[in-house]
Amino acid sequence: MGALSAEERPVVGQVANEVREAIEAVIQEKQEAFARLETESRLRAETIDVTLPGNAPAAGSIHPLNRIVQEIEDIFIGMGYTVAEGPEVETDYYNFEALNLPKNHPARDMQDSFYITEELLMRTQTSPVQVRTMKAMNGRTPVKVICPGKVYRRDDDDATHSFQFNQIEGLVIDKHIRISDLKGTLLQFSRQMFGSQAQIRLRPSFFPFTEPSMEVDVTCVQCGGSGCRMCKHTGWLEILGCGMVHPRVLEMGGYDPEEVTGFAFGMGVERIALLKYGIDDIRHFYTNDLRFLNQFGRL
Hints:
- The protein is an alpha+beta fold.
- The protein has 2 domains: about 1-50; about 65-295, BirA Bifunctional Protein, domain 2 (2-Layer Sandwich).
- It has helices spanning about 10-45, 65-75, 90-95, 125-135, 180-195, 245-250, 270-275, 290-295, and strands at about 80-85, 90, 120, 145-150, 165-175, 200-205, 210-220, 235-245, 260-270.
- The protein has a 7-stranded mixed beta sheet, with helices on both faces. A two-stranded antiparallel ribbon has the order 2-3.
- Strand 6 (about 200-205) and strand 7 form a beta hairpin.
- It is elongated, with a radius of gyration of 36 Å.
């Protein structure tokens, strides 16, 4: 263009513009054609047959242990209990000393513990919540609580043991509380949990925080008491421990054992679940195998 004369430049410039516009028009046309072809190809490849059944999303369900906890809570709330909770990292005082287990007491060997410091540990039972509840009540009655939660003990994992498991403990304090009240409460619980035909029996035992202390058995949920492999042909299955609150524990909680009495009980949630659902290995609850957990979605 620079070499052209002044008269030729407008003519050549006009021709150049027309050529450029023609080329751009062809390019635009081709791009639109390619876009249409791509859209048509994608529509053919992504066609949805609305007559086919859809893929249902996987639905979650309540974990069997949570289900048992809720069921136990509902039973006791129906009997007038309230639910109390406490810290999982507990002091030695609340976990042991206030429960009639002073330092160096031989009964502490029953509960090998995860200590954080000399005075802090992962609680080995939910009984500290009972002590905290008594102190919070400041001597008032009645006390009627259950205490669900996780507990920790140094143990080897096997079919019936775990270093972490769930407990639910109960505490009742008032005037004129007797063993017959304890037995009636546990019989009512057993029948609502395992069926109206369930029976219980109490066997003497030892716990530092109750006196007298007892183990509670329920008629076998599989054979109804006639004897089978599950109950080792005895007709009975152990479900929990209980007893009348030790006077020393009442004193540590701020109560006068001459004025009030009480009973306490404690059960392992996994133990109840094993019996209720007929499961033979506690580890199934923690391995998150969907083949196992999906069985409880319909309950």
